[in-house]
Amino acid sequence: MEIHNKVAVITGTKRIGSVVGVQLAERGADVALTYNRSKEEAEETTRTIRSQGRKAMSLQADLSQDSEVRALVQHVTREFGGIDILVNMASIYRSKPFLETTEADWDANMNANLKSAYLCAKAVARVMQARGGGRIINFADWIAASGRPRYKGFVEYYVSKVGVIGLTESLALELAPYNILVNAIAPGPILAPPDLSEEENLAVRKATPLGRWGGELEIAKVVISLVESDFITGECIRVDGGRHVS
């Protein structure tokens, strides 16, 4: 699918999502960015995209609420004429020992990481169908894509991301007749957390066969590739520097 003059919606625009939005705009897309708390970063990215001559907007929404998701999709469709690309990046990542977790911890992970992707895909699918097709790209995790947990303290997160892979495969089958291709990206060490110690930084690089963090552009490259492909659907692509084989 050609990116030029298409409309993209990106959920979760903090850090990596902002770069993905700018890269899509550089290739001619108009972009709607959604955020929960990262208003300043979303608005800054919106200004950057507009400076490139493309349309952009930033919208706050609780993506675990169906009514807010439907209102978001209706607003973007009304302002930009439709939606061709959905990139589901909204997510939370928190560690807590299993026996200390609560029902609220479970719900928070499922809502942010899995339910939001389901609701957004459902809301945009009919819009894409009316436009002759589209692309939905979900975000899993390299550990979930590897089929087994590796670290303790992430039960809810891991289960939610495995669910994202299942959702991706199921939607790929359901939506193929409408030329809506659905894939997932499973990032590994892309950006070092701001509070990471130098010792922890070195440990991650040592455990990664390519010996470094990937950087946001590596994710944007895969997003663009999946948007432009006309024959890849139901896949989960690990972008982890070979971490899964180490």
Topology (elements, then pairings):
Elements: E1 7-11, H1 16-26, E2 30-35, H2 39-51, E3 56-60, H3 66-80, E4 85-88, H4 103-130, E5 134-139, H5 142-145, H6 155-175, E6 180-187, H7 198-207, H8 216-228, E7 236-239
Parallel strand pairs: 1-2, 1-4, 2-3, 4-5, 5-6, 6-7
Helix pairs in contact: 1-2, 1-8, 3-4, 4-6
Description of the molecule:
The chain has 246 residues and is α/β, with parallel strands linked by helices. The protein has one domain: NAD(P)-binding Rossmann-like Domain (Rossmann fold, 3-Layer(aba) Sandwich). It is built from 8 helices and 7 strands, in the order E-H-E-H-E-H-E-H-E-H-H-E-H-H-E. It has a 7-stranded parallel sheet, sandwiched between helices. It is globular, with a radius of gyration of 17 Å. The chain starts with 6 loop residues before the first strand and ends in a 7-residue tail after the last strand. The model has no long low-confidence stretch (mean pLDDT 97).
Throw out a few tags for this protein.
47% helix, 7-stranded parallel beta sheet, 8 helices, Rossmann fold, 246 residues, alpha/beta
Tell me how many strands there are: 7
The helix fraction, in percent, is: 40-55%
Strand residues, percent: 15-25%
CATH top level label? Alpha Beta
Short account of what is shown:
The protein has 246 residues and is α/β, with parallel strands linked by helices. 47% of the residues lie in helices and 15% in strands.
